[in-house]
Amino acid sequence: MKSLGIVLIALGLIMMIYTGFNFVTKEKVVDLGPLEINKSTNQPVQWSPIVGIVLLVGGIAIFVTTKKTKV
User: Model-level pTM?
Assistant: First the structure.
């Protein structure tokens, strides 16, 4: 369980720093034999930094409340 807490903490920090990313899609507009016209469209993917804060707090809670187990 502690490893899950560490992963959530790291993911929360990353999501607070980077609030989104963009990717480009290409769409064929015209295709007339050897002539081809493409349209590139920028597609943003964004999320609120509050999501990162929630993951960070949840990860800290899991990390702190998990008891040590002796193997």
Answer: 0.68
**3-state percent breakdown (helix, strand, coil) of the chain, nearest 5:** 45, 35, 20
Q: What is the pLDDT of residues 39-63, one digit of tens each?
A: 999 999 999 999 999 999 999 999 9
Q: Give the separation between CA 12 and CA 55, rounded to whole angstroms.
A: 5
Angle at 24 between CA 18 and CA 29, to 5 degrees: 160
- Tell me if 13 sits within 8 A of 64, measured CB to CB: no
Among candidate residues 58, 67, 66, the one with its CA nearest the CA of residue 10: 58
Q: Which single residue is written with the structure tokens 């990313």? A: 21
Strands 20-32 and 35-46: antiparallel
